[in-house]
Amino acid sequence: MSLVYDSLARWSVAWSPTQVPALGLHAGSPTMRTSQKDFNDAVSQVKLLKEDPGNEVKLKLYALYKQATEGPCNVPKPGMLDFINKTKWDAWNALGSLSKEAARQKYVDLVSSLSTSSKSPSPETPAADRKPPEGNSLVVTSEDGITTIRLNRPTKKNALTTQMYHDIIAALQAASKDESTITVLTGSGDYYCSGNDLTNFTHLSAGGLEEMARSGEVLLRDFVDCLIDFPKPLVAVVNGPAVGISVTILGLFDVVYATDRATFHTPFSHLGQSPEGCSSYTFPKIMGSSKAAEMLLFGKKLTAQEACARGLVTEVFPDGTFQKEVWARLKAYSKLPPNALRISKQIIRKQEKEKLHAVNAEESSVLRERWLSDECMNAIASFLSRKAKL
Ligand SMILES: CCCCCCCCCCC/C=C/C(=O)SCCNC(=O)CCNC(=O)[C@H](O)C(C)(C)COP(=O)(O)OP(=O)(O)OC[C@H]1O[C@@H](n2cnc3c(N)ncnc32)[C@H](O)[C@@H]1OP(=O)(O)O
After folding, report:
1. CA angle, corner 233, sides to 278 and 249, nearest 5?
2. CB proximity list for 15: less than 8 A, separation 6 or greater
3. How far is Cα 46 from Cα 15, in angstroms, rounded to an integer?
4. I need a surface site. Which of 67, 238, 286, 351 has the fewest CB within 10 A?
5. Which residues line ligand 1 (CB under 6 A)?
6. DSSP at 1
7. Which atom of ligand 1 is nearest to the CA of 270?
């Protein structure tokens, strides 16, 4: 959860020993002097931890630090949409009337338990060497008549940032005009895609939440429109679990190949959201209304085999031979006459294009409303504070 992580990392800058505010101890108490030194040492030690202790621990550290230095939570509760500060406030407030001394002790104990399970880097290790940069979130290549658009944020399970939606649109537009015969969407690492990056909701502009929801609606509509209009064969190479919008848009692909490790999950109700990617239309058509409802309303997660039996997936391959088999198949298909493929694809799509655009516009507009709802806000806050995992 990078947002809270980053935010906590920033707080740790403020924990520099020279900036730590006075702890309000009674001079002359040897126990407390020791405790203060231990506490200050622990504060410094946190910054040397090599391994990320995870958001839950970092929140505990934050809360204990605040309690130890300022006492019980004494600031107003941040608004519901101020996810990060609300999460921090909740953690601090949960400590109730715990004394400063007890909080300091708990902080020291917690850091000490972390230090024993994680080696500190040598002081000269440059920060950049500790966490390698992720590089480009989208990688587009063209080879053997195939343009491949690869989601490339493996450490975030290829969650889609707003920039990635824009980049995919641009990549599809370029692919529609390039020399390739087939276009492929796939993912790097163990996941295909974990859907919309939930931290997209935290990037509020001056226009506030309403403006964010409005621009989200436009971006979603443009993204899905681009898939509806894509003129060449579009293939999904589903290399691992797929969540949310990465699943719903599969109904707009021509062929979907999946590893037997893949799962297909659309937890919209859990998130206080509603279906997109034209799935409210394509899913009932592909698998029948009751099977579609099980996925889109109740968030039933399908195995690759189940998704194949329901017609969402074209074929499932054993994970061990997935890449080899699929790419060999695609290379063979890419030798087919490109114009015939284009014309055939377009005549198939033409029958439904208008309908799909209308469905997309409606789904996007309904989602804009959903994004402003308490149900959605609470679900996202819950994910960001790591209370719930889907
Ligand atoms: C209004 C503005 C919107 C602008 C954009 C509009 C465009 C269209 C929007 C269309 C609507 C789309 C809807 C959806 O896609 S709904 C589905 C959303 N996805 C989820 O709810 C999945 C959430 N993730 C999880 O449940 C788990 O992470 C997952 C099961 C996928 C994997 O669990 P696992 O335990 O294996 O791994 P981690 O949880 O530790 O994940 C590793 C790190 O990756 C981060 N992560 C994963 N998925 C997401 C995500 N979707 N958004 C943000 N971050 C994600 C996770 O937090 C971990 O990060 P840290 O290592 O930093 O903790």
Report:
1. 20
2. 43, 46, 47, 65
3. 9
4. 351
5. 1-2, 5, 55, 156-157, 159, 162, 165, 194-201, 212-213, 216, 219-220, 243-245, 267, 271, 273, 276, 371, 383, 389-390
6. -
7. 21
